Amino acid sequence: MTETSLAPEDSKIITLARAARARNGTAEGAAVRDETGRTYTATNVDLPSLKLSAVQVAVAMAVSSGAVSLEAAALVTDEEEPGAADLAAIEDLGDAVLFLAAPDGAVKGRYI
Q: Which is one GO molecular function term here (predicted)?
């Protein structure tokens, strides 16, 4: 599966996650789309006192902006599988699909 074989809105969140990761030079970039179509992008936080995945940050941003459910999420990373905490954060807001993508945008898998 490639980014171009996805629905346009799903391809868009992968592109946004890739851009966030590249802009900040971080290990992960994520984007989530809420029930109203609003999109939130984030990168992982790796501070001595606070460590959050990019998905956790994006979900927190959506919730703090009033989102009650997610339609889709994307995680761009070198990792081969999403973390359990990432899947749990998405599941907390319903049954959205998580697209796992490589830094070049190639989709490595769909989860949830």
A: catalytic activity
Based on the structure, what is the number of domains in the chain?
A: 1
Q: What is the CA radius of gyration of the chain?
A: 12
What 8-state DSSP symbol labels residue 8? H
The residue whose two tokens read 């996650």 is: 17
Read off the pLDDT of residues 23-76 as tens digits, 9 standing for 90 and up.
999 999 999 999 999 999 999 999 999 999 999 999 999 999 999 999 999 999
Q: Which domain holds residue 23?
A: 3-111
**Could you tell me the CATH number of the domain that includes residue 58?**
3.40.140.10
pTM over 0.90: yes
User: Residue 75: how many CB atoms within 10 A of its CB?
Assistant: 31
